[in-house]
Amino acid sequence: MAPISMRYNLAFPALLFVAGLFMLGVGLLVGELTQLVLGCMNVLLGFLFATQPMWVLTGTEIQVRNALGMTLKRHGYSSLAELEVRGGSLHRKSDGSKLVGKSFVGRQADWDAVVAAVSGA
Question: Are 118 and 77 within 8 A, CB to CB?
C-alpha cells in the first residue's frame, strides 16, 4: 500500500502566509524588529503547513507529524483491517481507541482517500 498523507487545507496556510507578509510589510514601514520576526515566523509556518502533512497512513503504522516534518508519534497495526472510521476519526477495532482525526484544517479529498483505503481493506 502506498502511503496516504492527510494534508492541511490550503486556506489555513494561505492565511498564515498572507498574515505574515502583512506583518513583514508593516514591520518594515514602522521599523519594529518584533513585528519583522513575527512576520517571518508566520510566512515560514504558512509555507511549512502547505508542504507538510498532519499525519501519514502507511501499511503498518500511522505517523503523526509536526509542521517541520518530524514524526511525533507512531500508532502501529498489522493491517488496515484493524482500523475503522467512526465519526470523522480513525479508531482501532480491538480496543476502540482513537488514533487520529480529520480535523477542521484537513483536506476533504485526503480524508476521502483514507476512508476508501480503510473501508476497502
Answer: no
